[in-house]
Task: structure prediction
Amino acid sequence: MRLSSTDCSLQKRQTEPVDDLRIDELRPVGGRFSGLLFENPNTGYPLQLTWTFSVDCAEVTREYGSTQPNLVVGWVPAAGRARWEEMAGVRFAGSTFGEPIETSVYFFEHHRYDAVEVEVVEQLGTELAVRVRATGDVDSLGISEIAVDATLTFSGIYVQADTSGTDVERAAELLSRFTDVSGLRGRPRGHNVVFEPSD
Result:
């Protein structure tokens, strides 16, 4: 797969479209890959690093408005001391929505998918060539299987923890427990800190 190519191919196995969405309207225009170091003491969610893969497609217009469809695979657990710049060959998979991976297609509203497989086929600097396959149309979008090949750009790792807030040094200390922070520069943004490539 060439890193310069992005392809959204959807195989429709159900006969009746929902919300008049047509497969040929899903024209990819890019995407993003990011990390999130997050905790929620109120719900018992421990401090954990996860990845998000988001594939954007071109705007679709209807009489009642316009929207930009996308496919998002989020809350993907990072194994061990994962490094964002060493993702080639890594695979992720989940079989049930929210346990823990959450996969959805946005078309005016979010449509959940149960099972997902993500493979990082190739990496060149901040660009990842990924292959995503999602099945199990929970919210009846009308597309039972989605197969996506896309090139995503790394947009940083966000640290949102009660003990760091917008303190860059504290956030870097927490993040270093999960991944190598060399080559990343932190900056505060609102209620968290984002670490982006320094080059």
